[in-house]
Amino acid sequence: MKYMQKMCAVSVFLLVAAGMVFSGGQRAQSSGKGLIGVVMPTRSEERWNKDGNAVKEGLEKLGYTVDLQFSDDDIPTQTRQIDDMITKGVKVLVIASIDGGALSNQLANAAAAKIPVISYDRLLMQSPNVDYYVSFDNYKVGVQMGEILVTGLKLDQATAANPVIVELFAGSPDDNNSVGFYQGAMDRLKPYFDRGVLRVPSGQIDRAVIGTLRWDAAEAQKRMENLLSAYYSGNVVLNGILSPYDPISLSTLEACKAVGYGTPGKPLPLVGGQDCIVASVKSILAGEQYATILKDTRSLGAATVELVNTIMQGGTPTGLDTTSYNNGAKIVPSLLLDSVIVTKDNVQKDVIDTGYHTRAELGL
Ligand code: BGC
Question: Which CATH superfamily is domain 138-294 in?
Answer without folding.
Answer: Response regulator (3.40.50.2300)
